């Protein structure tokens, strides 16, 4: 039984399968904010994906079991979060009204189950395990990779680094597969697929297995991640939603005022580097960390070079995702003696701005997980 208390209870109410004309909404292991009063948002979703529902936010302190009982008696259940779109909409809806944490309908069960990242539990008849698998060698193998030859499945430690395959497609029968040669952990591969495509691929029938198997044989690696994983967490309403968005401990706010170069040196000497915000997901993590800063802006690992006239991340990541303040254009920087560097607004819209590197601000480092 969970005994922690939160100043907010979050639940959902089922709606009929019809379009609505108001509101927005979306969540994770815990939401990061707290409500001043009782209110709700309507979440618009495609009726072909799942039943639309409303999120309600209640300003009451209860433990998880009490919150579950309250929601079931008053509405339907504690909230289930189905996908990244819901997560982003809920974060956006709550950012100015919630200051702490909120219960959602996720709890750890007694036994683990194999399930697809996209949602739903796998069918034994569609499985393709290698002989002797899954064996949970070392008692830490909870993610699945596909072998290059024969397309057989192996359970592996989720932290191992493999290439991976994402897919796009609005429905089950029409899918487009994308193979990525660089290596990620299973969870990093899942994040990449959800941000840039739809999800890590599921392999639910012989036809899909053959398509992926054929591509894997052409590519130069022995195995790759697919979207099958094992965990014991389950939703209160017993839905098959397998979406998870655990809080990241990769980012740390340093509440010391330093110039950009001093901040860079500090991060590299004490952690890994100044943070690179190269995806929307990292921007979401960043918002939660930056709001606790003692300065109005917070340094990022973002720098402009006048010689080549472009912005770049000091960690070497590609500069594709951008979130500049309107009018603070990244092009045509003033190449004065003081170099321009990037910072994020600590509060408000929390977008990026260009500032002289000799200003002194708080800053965010990336640190090793563990």
From TrEMBL:
C-type lectin domain segment(s): 50-167, 172-250, 246-366
Pfam family membership, one: Lectin_C
UniProt KW keywords: Disulfide bond
Transmembrane segments: none
UniProt cross-references to InterPro entries, sorted A to Z: C-type_lectin-like, C-type_lectin-like/link_sf, C-type_lectin_CS, CTDL_fold
Entry superkingdom: Eukaryota
Protein name: C-type lectin domain-containing protein
Source organism per UniProt: Astyanax mexicanus
